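Researcher: Can you fold this with zinc ion in place?
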Amino acid sequence: MKNLIFILLGVILSISSCKKVPLTGRKQLILLSETEVRGMALTSYNEFLSTNKVISVNKDSERVKNIGNKIAVAVTEYMKMKGLSESIAGYKWEFNLVEDKTVNAWCMPGGKVVIYTGILPICADDNGLAVVMGHEIAHAIAQHSNERMSQQYVQQFGAIGLNVALSQQPQQTREMANQAFGIGSTVLGTLPFSRTQESEADRIGLTFMAMAGFDPKAAPEFWKRMSAQSGNKSGSDFLSTHPSDAKRIANIQKYLPEALAYYKK
Ligand SMILES: [Zn+2]
């Protein structure tokens, strides 16, 4: 009986919580309030900043901020064009470069972006860095963390509210959130974005970087370099969560024309 109630609640929630991903139009299940998710993300982000070495001012950290700001402007423009401004209204963008040899990068819901120095050589130049930043920002805009958390959430907690889960099982809830944000990989064992979400972030990221003035043709080249890197297992979280293969690169090639239509020389 209890199970049946949960199933029914789940059905009701899913009917009322089905959203569409910008650009791709894919329907997704979003059960958690984005405000709550962003609040949790902010806590994780501040914890991360206080325990990692953020590079305050150098040439590379300036590049990260500069490229990030341009992509943020493009995202704002894109969402406005599609009548979706409200969904990023609470965004407070920040772009940090962190001293860490790990090949990794992420963007939290709410617009907090971290690039690890370990990924810079693979980016090669500003276009390559824009590929990574566009992709990570696309995960946030497409609410992929919320989607993953929503799926896990139903399994773990049923239909109780996030604030209730946080107060009753803070440790469990926090771990689930960190996994969904993609930062818990080394500590908690990562739960990668799904193939669907990866492909979607590739596609959306291409358009965002192109609108920001970066050449999306750099994307297949970047993923080829990532692929070449995969033999070398030097602590790459990015590779474990972003398997680079021929299929991925072929998909990116397929979506290049869509992005190139936005590319401003
Ligand atoms: Zn990704």
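Model: Folded with zinc ion in place. Residues 86 and 102 are 35 Å apart (CA to CA).
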